[in-house]
Amino acid sequence: MENYRAIPEGYMRIGEIAKKAGVTVRTLSYYDKEGLLAPSGASDGGYRLYSDKDLAKLMQILMMKRLGFTLNEIKMRTSAMNTTVEVLDVLTEHESYIRKKIDYLAESLNALKSLKEEIVQIDAVDFKKFAGILAHLQMKNERYWLIKYLDNDTLDALQILLPDEESTARFVEGTNRYVAEAAMLHDEGVPPESERGQELAKRFYGLLMEIMGGDTKLMHKMNAQILKSTSDERHDEIMDKFRLFMMSALGTYLGFAHPPPSVGVVEVAGNFIAEAATLHDDGILPASEQGQDFAKKYWQWVVELTGGDMAMIQTMNEQFEMHVPDDDEATKKSLSFIKASLEIYFNNREGGSGHD
Taking phi first (over 0 means left), then psi (-120 to 50 degrees means alpha), and beta for anything else, what does residue 22 get? Predict the structure, then answer.
């Protein structure tokens, strides 16, 4: 009783204020240590004493804690909540924060659902691909699903070329803009080979070359992989229009980038196809000296024809193969020989053991 009589009127010991507030003594000691709520005084016996004002501040702290404020936020704001206007300002600010958090969590939930759908379709544990899809989901890229069509080598290369969120976002924003513009020209009936179509193809090709660091091989590899998305269950009408328009526009643009010689191009190409068919029928192997001489001669002609533009060469090959009839076995036989001989020719050149 002596100790209680020593407590000044209007003050209470730590156990009493803890009981009134419904918290533990340990909690109050922690708040004191963190500079959140210090006792207003001490008794003659050394007990920490709290005033009614301290109790009001403690209730304020507990209210804000239940509303989701962190202890640091509470520490910064409690001193500025002495009037109803100040209280309302703080609560309004926190309300805005909570709404943003709800929106973020809703977006995260949608991203999680979409990622689960893609994982089911991929049907393989590929965390590199999962991470790529999730990153594009978080950037709200509507065509995030295209990532699943890229192989890991392409993803690795893109990660080097697009090392951060800013560069990736710029690439996504740029490509989406061109997708929409190409779809619009398609709807307007603008021919891909027209001035407007070619101007768009030039700008789009320039963006790809800039992003890909001039790596035309990577660019065409990525495009070929994305083209597989035509079989995707997800119907993307705008993307379909983009493909139809841009593939034709780029084919025309790349063909005009390095005009072929005006005389004998078709005739020379036909001669190479016929020669390849003859070599195949004669049993000449692509790896033989005769096969490699053919590959060297053919490649020199292609480089001269295109100016060495790998993008144009890739486009020419794709367009040519696309138009070979299914029943044209002779041409398919020639193309098979040409491909095999060129592959060996390039491997020998890289290894330094083949023809120059």
Answer: left
CA neighbor of 300 nearest in space, from 250, 266, 237, 345: 345
Confidence tier at 256 by pLDDT (50, 70, 90) = very low
User: What is the Cα 168 distance to its own chain's centre?
Assistant: 6
Residue 223 confidence (pLDDT) = 64
Using a 10 angstrom Cβ sphere, with 0-12 exposed, 13-18 middle and 19 or more buried, the burial of residue 235 is: exposed
8 Å CB contact between 307 and 259: no
Q: What is the pLDDT of residues 43-89, one digit of tens each?
A: 777 788 998 888 888 888 888 888 888 888 888 877 666 677 877 88
Three-state SS at 328: coil
Burial 126-140 (b: 16+ CB within 10 A, else e): beebbebbbbbbeee
Spatial separation of the C-alpha atoms in residues 9 and 27, rounded to whole Å:
24
